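Q: I'm writing a short methods note and want an example of a predicted protein-small molecule complex. Could you take the sequence and the SMILES for pyridoxal-5'-phosphate and return the bound structure as tokens? Please keep the output block clean; save any remarks for afterwards.
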Amino acid sequence: MPEGSPPAPIPFIDLDAQRRALGPALEEAVLRVVRSGRYILGPEVAELEAALARYTGAPYVVSCANGTDALALALMAWEIKPGDAVLVPAFTFAATAEVVAWLGATPVFVDVREDTFTMDPESLARGIATARRLGLVPRAVIPVDLFGQAADYAAILPLAAAEGLKVLVDCAQAFGATWQGRQVAATGDMAATSFFPAKPLGCYGDGGAVFCHDRETLETLLSLRVHGQHLEDKYENVRIGMNGRLDTIQAAVLLAKLAVFDAECAARDRIAARYAAALADVAIVPRVAPGNRSVWAQYTLRVPGRDREAILTRLRAEGIPTAIYYPKPLNRQRAYAHCPVAEGGVPVSERLSGEVFSIPFHPYLDEATQDRIVAAVRAAIAAA
Ligand SMILES: *Cc1c(COP(=O)(O)O)cnc(C)c1O
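A: Understood, no commentary inside the block.
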């Protein structure tokens, strides 16, 4: 390396390393679809849905165009409407709240727990009361399995049941994660996931899936996915739906990737353990709650009291990319600033957005690169 030139940057998520590891099988699967001509709802789509049901233990799976549509399809199946409240964490990706607003219902923001970044059940209880006080009808809660880890379902499920709320699990970041030995996609009344390329199980474009537990909901979701069609008579539209199908090519990609997914999850666990051992004395490393298995969609550190910007600037100079998920809680975003917040506010979400940063993480990260990242992170924190 010429003197003075910055170290070569490493990728934040290395999808090309995964592509190389998968070999020609994946590309051949895509070509098969191209040659078959069955681009919409080809046989790979049903094959994928069956494979996802087997993998998760969820009885019924409906694949769809992306994770946002997956959330929307679930809420549409429940006929969420204006006047309804849906409780969502303030510390999440915007799509979790966006789908509620699509239907004219009101997202009510709930705080998260500092140790796991997932929904705080006590704030949820306060949020339900806040919604009622505002004259809204609390209909559902969307716990988010943030950064790859299950939300606190042991507390959230009984609370939702007692209050008459449906539970829609947003496992867009956590396909494959488990809670008490159960796949998160099979938890709650319905679950929605995303196959966006950078998610733990990603395709080569947009994709998603909804998981449900009864045949009637399955049929409603299938109808909603194709413009609210009658399932036997496609020229009869029985409800307002959407065009929400998953492309056959993406289903073929996902089937190939599902074959190596368990090995990837094991690699993710190993890397997370190595990171924790090497960083726990200089930063707050992620905590996995007892009974949970994370799929590590992000490896997120906190350095309270340190200058985060200075740390990230130093890492950038060393060729180490970082990301801030999330720099602002949703209640601070312009589009959501008018939405109600659970009584007591969301102080943890506000604080976390000023402290967190995520470092490169993917299952093909070799030990030498991990060590380079760890050394750079330690040096950047020491200098901040
Ligand atoms: C990615 C994501 C979504 C949306 O998924 P898309 O496939 O990008 O539409 C929803 N919720 C959370 C928490 C996400 O991270």
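A: Remarks, as requested: The pocket of pyridoxal-5'-phosphate is lined by residues 66-68, 92-93, 95-96, 144, 170, 172-173, 194, 196, 206, 208 (CB under 6 Å). The two ends are 27 Å apart (CA to CA).
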